[in-house]
Write a structure and sequence with these properties.
This protein has about 600 residues and is mainly beta. It contains three helices and 46 strands. Keywords: Signal. InterPro entries: Pectin_lyas_fold, Pectin_lyase_fold/virulence, SACTE_4363, TAT_signal.
């Protein structure tokens, strides 16, 4: 199945988006020069808190206004967290039905998903370019989320009736959600061709209806409970998911592309904000789990610890990086409220157990060629819910975890990066040598989309949005679950650490290569691998890993191999694939010369079940 390139920007302008919702969700503005509180404090104007005591019509109006404003706001600065206090919203007779747009994170404020119940549906639909019903798809439905609540699916009629539509692509996680009723991951009602390009589900339960995968080209589901799953396109990966389809990835024509691991090797759920019994905000920090299966919350509460909001510096727009780092040095955690934060120097995380929690896709932009975040080689740090944008002055690295040469083990209390997303280009013409560098042993990377933009500001041009590599891993025993890295100009992932594990990987080669000479790993090797394991590595294992090509300059660009690794018994791959999406050229082999080519004559997928 081929697909067109992602569309250019469209929709409401940033100014119109702001005006549309200002009266409803932003009655006050936090002054840039406001003093930093010692801890706790207001969540600010961009956090919308809903109460079950509010009239249903008022809740509906607020949600609809936000959705209209954010529907086409792909690269605008507006960001919102929408938080539901514990209770029930909507009824079967009068359901609460609302869509979720760009930079909207929707979450319940209960301790567990059952504490907030929505009778209705929470939806993401196709976007139709210029209203053209023949150009409707979900391949740009990024940067939105749903977490920590229960949906009793109800409402709407006709094609949309009694179904929750969650038609998303990358950077749109669904976590700690119970869905009771019909759920579809594609929008088959709004025009065509209705493509979708990957999503992430974790720690969630689905009852009363088979999940319709539909057009999702790849999708990752872990530590969840499923009540059925239909079809797959190229790469569907399940890790510790009860009720998942049986392993079936194969080279045989017509075989379902399912990669199924009975348990997930190591996981750590993202920290989340909730209200305690006294109505006070707290942040719950889940503990790491090993060889896990199913949700963390069904049989008793999620293991972990709770931290009061007074132990957090609540970062609001206008805060400076000097204030942020002073708070960290004083022993506080960070709760970054929705907004865009320009950083002339890096946020420095030095204390074990520090929590850096973003709400509403809080976005960090380095402005002086610096990193946005540096984490020391210490136990138990969690960084979650952030976008890190490359600034216009080139940074050597956007985020660094541990110093090079770090040797400390963190097996019992690992550093975790959850829903941390990187962009080079798109919102601005940024540049970085490397987006993310992980040097600390035992680090967990859980749902990361590391993207050199193929559209938006700087996107689509070989000479702009410059960046060589999305991810470099030097630490040992690093585990990535749900990893997508796309369009970087040299080796996109370089994995140098021992005993690494990757469960689900999605990649697209750069679209905009102008000629073959500009894209050569060596005199003999055309292009660069999407994923390379270092030549000295003795042990590594990967499952469900795909790389696709769409060279759009009308030139016969070739990539010698999508995956490159030393041929040794300890370095093992399961269920690899390549696909020719569109354009010219192609990928000559899947891994190290093994696996047939994909190109205009044979689009694929080209599957390799095991290597070596």
């Amino acid at each position: 199945m081929n697909r067109a390139p992602r569309s250019r920007r469209y929709g409401l302008a940033a100014a119109a988006a702001t005006a549309l919702v200002a009266a409803l969700v932003a009655p006050t503005t936090q002054a840039a020069a406001a003093p930093v509180p010692p801890g706790g404090g207001s969540l600010g104007a961009n956090v919308v808190v809903l109460d079950p005591a509010m009239p249903k019509a008022e809740v509906q109006d607020r949600l609809n206004a936000l959705a209209r404003a954010q529907a086409g706001n792909e690269f605008g600065p507006q960001r919102y967290a929408i938080l539901f206090k514990p209770g029930t919203y909507g009824t079967a007779a009068d359901p609460l039905v609302f869509p979720v747009g760009f930079y909207e994170s929707v979450a319940g404020l209960g301790k567990n998903p059952g504490d907030v119940v929505i009778n209705g549906s929470v939806n993401v639909y196709n976007q139709c370019v210029g209203g053209d019903q023949s150009q409707c798809y979900a391949t740009t439905n990024f940067w939105r989320s749903l977490s920590n609540l229960t949906v009793n699916v109800a409402g709407q009629s006709g094609c949309y009736g009694n179904t929750d539509f969650w038609a998303v692509s990358q950077a749109a996680p669904l976590r700690r959600v119970q869905m009771n009723g019909n759920v579809t991951l594609m929008d088959y009602c709004t025009g065509s061709p209705a493509w979708a390009s990957g999503g992430f589900v974790a720690d969630s339960k689905f009852t009363g209806g088979t999940v319709i995968n539909g057009s999702q080209q790849q999708f990752f589901t872990r530590t969840s409970n499923l009540d059925g799953w239909t079809n797959g396109v190229w790469n569907q990966v399940f890790c510790g998911a009860e009720g998942a389809p049986a392993q079936s990835f194969s080279t045989e024509q017509g075989a379902a592309p399912y990669t199924t691991l009975d348990t997930c090797p190591v996981t750590r759920e993202a920290p989340y904000l909730y209200l305690d019994d006294q109505g006070r905000y707290r942040v719950f920090v889940p503990a790491a789990q090993h060889d896990s299966r199913g949700t963390t919350w069904e049989d008793g509460g999620t293991p972990g610890r709770s931290i009061g909001l007074d132990d957090f510096f609540v970062v609001r727009p206008g805060a400076t990086v000097q204030q942020i780092n002073a708070a960290l040095r004083a022993g506080r955690n960070l709760l970054l409220t929705p907004g865009v934060y320009e950083l002339p120097e890096a946020i420095r995380v030095t204390r074990p157990g520090t929590q850096v929690v973003g709400l509403g896709f809080a976005t960090l932009v380095p402005t002086g060629g610096n990193a946005a975040v540096k984490v020391d080689d210490v136990d138990g740090v969690n960084v979650s819910g952030l976008i890190i944008d490359a600034g216009e002055e080139k940074s050597p690295v956007l985020m660094q975890v541990g110093n090079r040469g770090s040797k400390d083990a963190h097996r019992s209390d690992p550093i975790a990066l959850s829903d941390v997303f990187f962009r080079v280009g798109g919102a601005l013409n940024g540049a970085a040598d490397t987006a993310l560098e992980v040097n600390s042993d035992d680090t967990l990377i859980d749902d990361a989309w590391i993207w050199r933009a193929d559209h938006g500001t700087g996107g689509g041009s070989w000479t702009s949005a410059r960046s060589d590599t999305g991810l470099v891993v030097n630490g040992d025993r690093v585990t990535a679950t749900g990893l997508a890295v796309e369009h970087f100009q040299k080796t996109e992932v370089q994995w140098n650490g021992e005993q690494g594990r990757v469960v689900f990987f999605q990649n697209e080669n750069p679209y905009d290569v102008p000629n073959q000479a500009a894209w050569m790993a060596s005199k003999e090797q055309k292009g660069y691998p999407a994923f390379a394991v270092g030549p000295k590595v003795k042990t590594f294992e990967g499952w469900g890993m795909g790389s696709y090509s769409y060279f759009n300059q009308g030139v016969d660009i070739r990539n010698s191999m999508a995956f490159q690794a030393p041929t040794t018994p300890g370095v093992r791959f399961h269920d690899l694939l390549t696909v020719f999406l569109n354009g010219s050229g192609g990928i000559d082999s899947v891994i190290n010369g093994t696996g047939r080519a994909v190109d205009p004559a044979s689009g694929g997928p080209s599957n390799v079940v095991s290597y070596p």
